[in-house]
Amino acid sequence: MTSSTDTKAELKPDNFRFSIRYPWRTLLLVKLLLFYALLLLQPELISLLKLPDFLFRPEYFSGAFLGFLIFAWFDLRSFMQQKNRVKNQFKKLWDNKRQLQQRAQTSASHTDKLKMFISDKLLEYIEYDEKYLHFRSIAAEVRHNGVISFDKVQSALQYAASHSLPDDNGSTALQYQEALSGMRYLWDLLDLSTTDNMAMHIGAHISRCEELLFQAELQGTALESLPLQPVFDPQQALLDTLRLHLGATLCDADGKPEPAALFQATTDAVHLTDSDGLFSIELQPCDRLAGNPNHLILLLENLLKNARYYATKKQYKSRFPPVSIRLWEAQQHLCLTLYNRGPHIADDDRGQIFKLGFSTRRARGHHGKGLGLYFVQQITQGFDGDIAFDNVHNRSDDYYLRLEYRDGSVEHLHLQQRLQDELPLVGLAGSENEAVAQFEQRLSKPLVTVEISSEGQPQVQRLDCSGGPVSWLDPQHPGLPRWLLQCSGRKGETLIFTPLDIRGVQFNLRLPTVSGRLDGAGTAGLQAPDVHELHSRFRGPDDF
Amino acid sequence: MIKIFWVEDQSHWIEKFRPLLERSNFAPGAEGELAAGENNRLEVFRFAEPALARIAQTDAGDAPHIAILDASLNGNDDGGFSVSKALLKKWPALPIVFLSEHSGTGIEQKAFEEGVTQDFIAKHQRNIEGVLLWRMKALLRQSLQPVANKKAQLVSGDLRIDLVSWEVWWQGNKLMNPANPARPLAPTPRKILRFLVEASPRPLTTMQMADLLEADIEKFSYASYRQHIKILRHSMAAAHGHEQEFMDQCRAGRYIATFGDEGAYCWKPL
């Protein structure tokens, strides 16, 4: 019984009982005992009340008194217990009340915090929207009023560029030309900032350019004779972005200043870098694009600024240029890959990354959050292209090195690259030694050549080491080298193989080229194949 | 010599374009400037009200050849629209060009939606003078050369191909890119359609078509011919309204019909 009551009490912690049974039985017994004592002291009362005499023997009184004391002790004990219980119940009740109050206070403070957070966010968004709208209305006003000033500046710069006297460096005309390009870029930014839908605005412009292009094609007229140039060179747009808008000083792979006509004179790929060693650029010959080059420049500028931000952060130091750009053409599309050393983008963010207001950067006070990639996507859509990104991971691989010494002897090395905490480590195959970040081999004889191939890249690469110390980055992947091979020491006595950490993010952009547009590629060409078509019945060619 | 009706509230643009508009030779096929002593007749208005009054007073026979309007006049975004509507009410066939800094905004959208202009030119673009002249010439070609214009058109049933501008119309609707109706139709399908119509009722095989297109026979196979025909059919079906109906007609051997087994197609109007 007791245990079930306790269980009930536990189950109902708030079922308080405050009643106390008063020790009235002890009081009654005291009165009876006093009356008994009175009878003993006044024997005449016994006869008067006609009570039996044997009841009033002194030892009976002692027994009764003892019985009374025992009963009183139990009764008082029970009373004290009840009193304590009530006291405890009161304490518990107060505790419960206090707890509730505390809980209410905590909830209230949470609610306050939540309210603060929501209002902060709301304010931030309102401010953001207001700023955006405010800027747009200012830009629209500036555009309306500034069009004449723009026209005057443009005419003046055009006149100055075409009439400037040649100076020693021939740089004055170039300066005017650059000022004109900068002015037009500024104007196009202003133009885009006042549109309701950037993608539609660019799409409409490209549509107009496309119509011009088609007219020229149908009538057999040269594009140069048209009053408005409907096409532009994407290589030049990329170089202009780097030089004019990001301030990079470009040079070829040997550090010589990049000659302007280099990539126009050759049909091979041109590799460039910048004087800070930040960018690695590979330009392959590619067709022109329809539209305004400044729209592509804005796209590239946003992507490159993002890449440069991560490249200049300390934790992403690397032994090769941290930003790699590759431009080439495939299936009548201009393809551009841009690698940066930024942190991997979570799968959950995959659908969000190009949305307005979304940013992977969490730093406070970072203004213009989530605008860059939104612009990039809008411009890409305007060009009828597509953009995606991949997280670049390090991979395990097996490398085979063939060392040829001056005395004609040959040594083979089999190196295994394995991953530990996503970082590549290397060790000799079959060796019990632990894999290390950098493999070193002391050489007893002078080395002449090293040949290297791997499971992932079976084509053999050959390095000449006869000329002394040499450092060699993976030539198969100039933009994103997987390894570094060094022959150090004065006589080339140590061979060092370093697997490189290539983690980062790579953006892939595809835009239809002019020939793609002429042949009707573009949006239709970019659509993924319909796999359901594979199960359909056989149809004649004209059904398609 | 042509008559130009021009409404522009900013003197900078008037000064900039006046010599150009006065001296340019807009005659079809003509290049360069007018002969000495000859000028185009320009009527320039800075405000919408006097322009409207002038339209009301002008005789129907004394119509201008073309009108150039600024969309926003002295702060009034509807200023150009009201002038355009008044002009079209009096001369419905008058070509009108909007020359404005509001290109790419809601004003341009409204102008095309309300059908008050044939063209909308941005003032701030590169080589604005060249663009303006070239677009004006394109618009004037229709009105200045009506007889020659008819010869420059290929008409077959509901199909009309303008051999100068290469615009193709089916049942009064312009053919566009079937993958994206906002974009123009690619040049090769337009050329193919022209050759098919010119050869009709004879069919054209892949070899013959490659020859007419001056295409490399290595590259222009039956597969590419078929692909272009597919694009063309879809484009015409979109202009037709009922896509399935048009495709059914093609399958039944009408319009762009498949001919024989030799990879040939034929134009058969109803």
UniProtKB/TrEMBL annotation, chain A:
<dbReference type="InterPro" id="IPR036890">
    <property type="entry name" value="HATPase_C_sf"/>
</dbReference>
<keyword id="KW-0472">Membrane</keyword>
<dbReference type="InterPro" id="IPR050980">
    <property type="entry name" value="2C_sensor_his_kinase"/>
</dbReference>
<dbReference type="GO" id="GO:0004673">
    <property type="term" value="F:protein histidine kinase activity"/>
</dbReference>
<feature type="transmembrane region" description="Helical">
    <location>
        <begin position="60"/>
        <end position="76"/>
    </location>
</feature>
<keyword id="KW-0812">Transmembrane</keyword>
<dbReference type="InterPro" id="IPR003594">
    <property type="entry name" value="HATPase_dom"/>
</dbReference>
<feature type="domain" description="Histidine kinase">
    <location>
        <begin position="289"/>
        <end position="407"/>
    </location>
</feature>
<protein>
    <recommendedName>
        <fullName>histidine kinase</fullName>
        <ecNumber>2.7.13.3</ecNumber>
    </recommendedName>
</protein>
<dbReference type="Pfam" id="PF02518">
    <property type="entry name" value="HATPase_c"/>
</dbReference>
<keyword id="KW-1133">Transmembrane helix</keyword>
<feature type="transmembrane region" description="Helical">
    <location>
        <begin position="22"/>
        <end position="40"/>
    </location>
</feature>
<keyword id="KW-0067">ATP-binding</keyword>
<dbReference type="GO" id="GO:0005524">
    <property type="term" value="F:ATP binding"/>
</dbReference>
<dbReference type="InterPro" id="IPR005467">
    <property type="entry name" value="His_kinase_dom"/>
</dbReference>
<keyword id="KW-0547">Nucleotide-binding</keyword>
<keyword id="KW-0808">Transferase</keyword>
<keyword id="KW-0418">Kinase</keyword>
From TrEMBL, chain B:
<dbReference type="GO" id="GO:0000160">
    <property type="term" value="P:phosphorelay signal transduction system"/>
</dbReference>
<dbReference type="InterPro" id="IPR001789">
    <property type="entry name" value="Sig_transdc_resp-reg_receiver"/>
</dbReference>
<feature type="modified residue" description="4-aspartylphosphate">
    <location>
        <position position="70"/>
    </location>
</feature>
<keyword id="KW-0597">Phosphoprotein</keyword>
<feature type="domain" description="Response regulatory">
    <location>
        <begin position="3"/>
        <end position="138"/>
    </location>
</feature>
<dbReference type="InterPro" id="IPR011006">
    <property type="entry name" value="CheY-like_superfamily"/>
</dbReference>
<protein>
    <submittedName>
        <fullName>Response regulator</fullName>
    </submittedName>
</protein>
<dbReference type="InterPro" id="IPR036388">
    <property type="entry name" value="WH-like_DNA-bd_sf"/>
</dbReference>
